Amino acid sequence: WMREAELKHGRIAMMAFAGWLATDFGVRFPGAGEPYTSVPNAFSAHNIMVDSGAMWVMLSLIGFIEISTAAVLVEVSKGENDREAGDFCFDPLGFCKGKSADAINTMKLKELQNGRAAMMAFGGLATQTALGGVDFPYLVPYPNVADVTW
Question: How far apart are alpha carbons 99 and 77 in whole angstroms?
Fold first, then answer.
């Protein structure tokens, strides 16, 4: 359960970090229309999407995925399925095709470590932006850090 959750959170954090940067650099889905085109920055995106009702679509999709994968996790915990944590047999680009077991394990370790780094990076990115560094590179606009009183 724990490794499955760690991999899932790491994958989501990697996508979230990339998505945050893409949004702040002005990347939008072509033809998306309102409210997506009116998002000024990634920090404001959450509230804009909640107010417009667009978050219900995301919540429903994520809920469906969670319910679908929960059944397999129960099977794994009972010993009825030998699926490895995070392995959904989805490799459309063929990264693991023809690779040795050592090479595959190395790639899995890299994914795990990059996911851990992305979780920390996204937390730092969101915190810096919330503190006032709304625009890239998200630096908090204190003229002199020594002058800041806590």
Answer: 28
Cα–Cα distance between 58 and 139 in angstroms, integer?
A: 30
| Residue 74 confidence (pLDDT) | 75
Helix (H, G, I), strand (E, B) or coil at 42: helix
* Residue 41 structure tokens: 């920055």
Any alpha helices (H) in 1-148, and if so which ranges? 2-24, 42-52, 55-78, 101-130
What confidence tier does 147 reach under pLDDT thresholds 50, 70, 90? low
Helix (H) or strand (E) holding 6: helix 2-24
Pull the structure tokens for residue 112: 């795990």
Cβ distance 110 to 14 under 8 Å? no
Rounded Cα distance between 93 and 108, Å, is 15
Q: At what angle do helices 42-52 and 101-130 cross, to 10 degrees?
A: 80
28-66 per-position pLDDT tens digit: 887 777 888 888 888 888 888 888 888 888 899 989 988
3-state secondary structure of 44: helix
The pair of three-digit structure tokens given for residue 91, joined into one six-digit string: 């490799």
Reported pTM = 0.77
